[in-house]
Amino acid sequence: MNYDFTFGSKIQCSENEKKHSLILLKEILEQTKKARTAGFLVLGQDSDSITNAFLKDSVKLIGKGYDYQAVEKILEIKMAVRNAEGIHLLEMAMVKEGILSILRGDPVSLTEEILFSFLGTAIYEAHKKEQNDEFTRHIIQLSQGERTARSECGFWLLNASDNEISFLLKAFDWESLGVLMKVETDAVLYRIYSNLSKEAGKLFRERLQMQKAPDAKTINSAENKFRTITAKISGSKETAAV
After folding, report:
1. Could you give all domains of the chain from N- to C-terminal order, each with its CATH number?
2. Which residue numbers delimit the Flagellar motor switch protein FliG C-terminal domain (predicted)?
3. Could you tell me the pTM of the whole model?
């Protein structure tokens, strides 16, 4: 389907209709998060909970194991046959692009950007403001957690300086850090977020939410990386003291 002038004229609808489409947008993002954490097959198993009929049918295509090209072709045919206009066409296009984004393995944040492009800047900015406020509330809640930790890495973070934590964050890959933070306390997580920009913090939170529970081998590998990096930090401090 070409997103040209003809398409643009056919999806014209009111701002209230677009705002109502936020319900669908959030449903698509929920499916995206499930796909990232549990894989494609779980989408087909959980499709009965989806309220939008076109999204439900589209998710079932993923659950059947069809590849990207097949799903894209099927969805385009369904859209052409229905010959919808206004909010109905707009929402079908959102579903199509959301489903294809899931199949590409796009980050949830990118899927969100794609979907909001259909709704316009004003609705997108209002949503971002709401998200920022929610993230701020989340950080405040973490800051109120009891000062305790569950791992060697967690105890180190509670006692390290901001400079030391900044060094760790630059040297430690986020996937390995996420492995160790997956089961950490609020107080430890707050030390991470307070040393990240808001955008970086939101991205880390998104990755942490999508990350699967690690096995013992993965945890051990992450702990070894942590010890290597903190040993360098300790070495730098001793050199500076001399």
Report:
1. 5-119 (no CATH), 134-241 (1.10.220.30)
2. 157-231
3. 0.64
